[in-house]
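agent: user wants the structure for Putative HTH-type transcriptional repressor AcnR from Streptomyces aurantiacus JA 4570. delegating to structure tool.
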Amino acid sequence: MAVSRAEQRAVTRRALLDEGLRRFAADGYHRVVLAEVARAAGVTKGAAYHHFDSKAGLFRAVVAEVQEGLGERVAAAAELHEGLWEQLRAGCRCFLAAGTDPAVRQILLVDAPTVLGWDEWRALDEESSARHLVEALKALAAAGIIADQPVEPLARLLSGAMNEAALWIARGGDPGAAEQALDRLLAGLRTPA
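agent: tool returned. relaying tokens verbatim.
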């Protein structure tokens, strides 16, 4: 059975993304060579440039996939719980636990902010996961579980704190201690019963 050009392009792109993810996670952006990624993926260097224009283009696509996957994991962890408060806690805990994932650590937390720049990195985060936090906080405020307040600055504060804690975990910090600190931080947001 013949493979169409579109199918072959998709297979090539997927092979480059998979190998790029593996290499960027293991070696960091600056030690990855696009020609070596192409060779390991079983395609030509020209094919890599055709699909991504540059190493930075491949990295950007890998970051978007890792960011999207993390957002999906966080949302799925939250959806396992009934109550809004438990959903927030589960989503936040899942994000912290992602700090032990080499791809999240190296690609999202270490390299992406410097390689892509802060604004582009934040935009990718907004598209994939930060919006879930904003939605959760709005629902909590509407339900009276947290004080009615501007949600945007609160989401930024929590997101920044969790990014730093996930990076701390990635560099050898104690996940249990981070989880306890997160629970204390979140408990401070709750309105008195």
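agent: one observation worth passing along. The CA atoms of residues 118 and 143 lie 33 Å apart.
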